[in-house]
Every structure is written in structure tokens, then in C-alpha cells.
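Propose amino acids for all 319 sites.
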């Protein structure tokens, strides 16, 4: 079991949400030091941004980008490390373009998004990060344009449907509230079932780490307690679904067996009619096979009195 369950969660969570709109590679290796990017995304078709789809996450994923997600408030050296990864990716990209004698467009140059639950104003000032309300709203800060980077301070995001997918990556009460909102979404809401499964996988990893003697942070212990009822609900739903599927399967099998028996009975009556009256043409056989169960039972009794094909034709003409 991984020692870093939240990292594993992120590497499945973001690709699950945006993967259908492009190439989302988790754990992409960059640089000679074999450093990993949480998620490297290359859009291949329009990424939706409405609150009912991907919302703010979709806005961040409009161009090729790197996502680096931190469980705890990011430190200065970690911001520098993220920027270093970005520069490695950009440098590799430019070298490949030069080798192929191609030019690179602005949209192809990767953008870095750093997601952190909280961040001090001093760190924002040190990196000249500016709030960009016009495009992204509260909680999203952009570095100077030449750096092609931005910070998302998750706990500063407004609590609405547009920010739900990003608030799921927060911690403590912010994450717990987002999970509660996820549970209350309509059953057919896009991504709901998949994300609930990923959240429950996170619960399993946290519990396993705890059983192995690893000390959980207080907010993780609380998250485990909050998620346990969700896990039990999902187990109950799966059990109920299994019962319903079993009943449906049994009913379907019963109907199929009944139809097979009726078909055999019809073939038996046709053989008996043939033995008594001679060859039964295809049209009469079709009429016999079209009879319902009650009429078929009546024919099974009445045909004993038939003496000719005409008797059968006259009998069938009543239906």
C-alpha cells in the first residue's frame, strides 16, 4: 500500500475528469533527475467550462498544462521545484521543435498550475503572483506572463458548483464539504460515480496505512470517519443492486425457459396434427405457432375430433 495515498488519488482523480478531452498523463517523468509531474495534460478537443461540467478545472485545462497538487501548504522551495519541472518540459519541447525544423505556438507551450490548500500572502508577493478575478475568480493567482504559471489556493475558492472539482483536492472541512456536495449531486451527474469510487479508494488506502502503523494527520483521521458512512452506503447500494440484478436475471431466465417450453409444445402439436391429418403446409404451421397459450391448450384438446385439413383450417379461422 502506498505511503502517499493523496498523491495516488490526485494521479487518478484529475485524469478521470479531463481525460476524455485530451491526453492526461499521470506521473510523467521529466529531466535527468527522473522527477515526476502529477498530471501532464494535452487537450485534443474543446474542454467544457460550465458549472455543470468541469467548471473552473475546465478553464485551467484549456491549453497544454502541468498540474502539481499539494496536500499541505506549499513551501517556497516546492514552488521553485515546480517551475524547474515546467522549464524542463518547455526546454525539451523547444529542442524537439528545432530538431524537426518546426515553430512552436503559444498554445503549445505548457502552462503550470500549482494547487495548494492555503498560501501566505508573503509567498504570493515573493513570486509577484497576482489575483486574476476577471477570468478565474477568487483564489487563482498568475505569475508574471513570461513564467506561464499560476497558483490555485483551494481554500480561497468560492463555494459553488463551478469550483467543486478543485475543492475536492482541499483538506479538512473544505474537502469534507466538497465530498458531501458530491454525494448530493443527481445520480446521473457526469463523473459522480467514478469520483465517489476514487474517494472510497482513498479511504481504503488511508485505513491500510493506519493499520500498518503509519500515523495519520488529524484531518485524515477525520476524513476516514466522515467517509466510513459513505463506504457503508455504497456497500448497501451494491448489495441491493446485486439483489435486483439477480432477480432480473432470474426473471429473464424464467421467461426464456417458458418460451422454450411453449415453442416445444407448438412443435409437438404440429407433429401430432401431421400424424393425424397428413402434411400441414407452412401457412397453417405459422397460424398454429401464432396462437397464445390458452388457444394452444384448446387446440390440443379439439384436434382429436379433426378428420381433415379442412377441419383444422375451419378451427384456425376463428382466431
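Proposal:
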Amino acid at each position: 500500500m502506498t505511503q502517499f495515498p493523496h498523491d495516488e488519488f490526485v494521479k487518478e482523480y484529475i485524469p478521470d475528469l479531463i481525460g476524455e478531452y485530451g491526453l492526461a498523463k499521470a506521473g510523467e517523468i521529466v529531466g535527468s533527475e527522473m522527477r515526476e509531474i502529477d498530471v501532464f495534460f494535452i487537450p485534443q478537443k474543446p474542454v467544457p467550462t460550465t458549472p455543470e461540467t468541469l467548471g473552473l478545472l475546465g478553464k485551467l485545462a484549456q491549453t497544454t498544462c502541468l498540474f502539481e497538487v499539494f496536500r499541505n501548504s506549499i513551501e517556497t522551495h516546492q514552488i521553485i521545484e515546480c517551475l524547474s519541472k515546467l522549464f524542463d518540459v518547455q526546454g525539451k519541447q523547444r529542442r524537439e521543435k528545432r530538431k524537426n525544423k518546426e515553430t512552436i505556438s503559444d498554445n503549445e507551450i505548457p502552462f503550470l498550475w500549482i494547487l495548494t490548500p492555503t498560501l501566505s500572502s508573503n509567498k504570493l508577493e515573493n513570486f509577484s503572483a497576482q489575483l486574476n478575478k476577471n477570468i478565474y475568480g477568487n483564489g487563482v493567482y498568475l505569475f508574471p506572463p513570461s513564467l506561464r504559471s499560476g497558483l490555485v489556493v483551494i481554500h480561497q475558492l468560492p463555494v459553488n458548483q463551478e469550483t467543486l472539482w478543485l475543492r475536492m483536492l482541499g483538506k479538512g472541512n473544505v474537502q469534507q464539504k466538497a465530498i458531501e456536495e458530491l454525494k448530493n449531486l443527481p445520480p446521473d451527474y457526469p463523473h459522480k460515480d467514478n469520483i465517489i469510487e476514487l474517494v472510497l479508494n482513498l479511504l481504503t488506502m488511508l485505513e491500510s496505512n493506519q493499520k500498518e502503523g503509519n500515523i495519520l494527520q488529524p484531518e485524515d483521521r477525520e476524513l476516514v470517519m466522515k467517509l466510513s458512512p459513505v463506504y457503508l452506503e455504497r456497500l448497501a447500494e451494491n448489495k441491493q443492486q446485486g439483489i435486483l440484478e439477480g432477480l432480473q436475471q432470474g426473471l429473464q431466465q424464467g421467461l426464456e425457459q417458458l418460451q422454450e417450453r411453449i415453442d416445444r409444445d407448438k412443435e409437438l402439436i404440429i407433429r401430432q396434427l401431421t400424424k393425424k391429418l397428413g402434411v400441414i403446409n407452412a401457412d397453417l404451421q405459422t397460424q398454429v405457432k401464432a396462437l397464445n397459450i390458452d388457444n394452444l391448450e384448446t387446440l390440443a384438446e379439439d384436434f382429436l375430433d379433426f378428420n381433415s385439413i379442412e377441419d383444422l383450417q375451419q378451427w384456425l379461422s376463428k382466431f
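The chain has eleven helices and seven strands. Residues 258-316 form one domain.
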